[in-house]
Specification:
Blueprint: H1 6-19, H2 40-48, H3 52-57, E1 77-80, E2 83-88, E3 102-108, E4 112-118, E5 124-130, E6 133-138, E7 146-150, E8 155-158, E9 163-167, E10 174-180, E11 188-189, H4 190-194, H5 199-205, H6 217-223, E12 229-230, H7 233-239
Length: 247
Amino acid sequence: MYTIPAFLIFALLASAALASPLNRRITNHNNAADPIGDNAAIITQLEQAPTAVARQALLTDPSDWLFDFQNAAATALTTGAGGHTVKADRKEFPALIGTGVSMTLGFLGPCGFNTPHVHPRSSEINVVVQGALVAEFVSENGVAPITNNLSQFQMTVFPQGALHTEFNPLCTPSIFVAGFASEDPGVQQAAQSFFGLESDIVQAALGGDGTVNGMDIDAFKGLVPKNVALGVESCLKACGLQKRAVV
């Protein structure tokens, strides 16, 4: 009787496992199988997995469960003159699928300003881990804004959908950690989105020609800075920083 060597059986099993659809995964944005860096293939498989056990079978490499905020893909970054933020959501970090959470780190330079924005699908808890922040939000029409001056290891909360902002009042860098109760909390910058509307809509919302001349709308659009911005004027002056020129 011919006996198949044990090492040959092991090799056959290993090759079958590698050929299985459950193991055709993407581990990072630099993977050749994911040239556009959107993790679409693995996200689809994770969403279609019937159980949590099946989802975890798709992510067998320990690195699949690790997100490095200091070495994230370009698509995870939002950068402006005042600093940058790095997000770990379901697109950037597929291991989050099924967990219901995500996170953003904010690195604000001196006078750095995370411009007013909303998260349409989640509340946010925000913790200062270095420096300080002025945190402000208004949840809806008819309620007063809430403002807090946060120092290191203090936290605030922004309700879901509330217009909010974070500002570094110091002449040294500040860092915050923002946690979300959604894998995809979304974000919409208020001023940038508003001035992205049709010019006649923007003009009407600002009070018509009596307030803003329609010919000036495009000029206003050009003055809205990219997030993360530099502000507030008093901080810029105290830190000896030049404000963005108005042209």
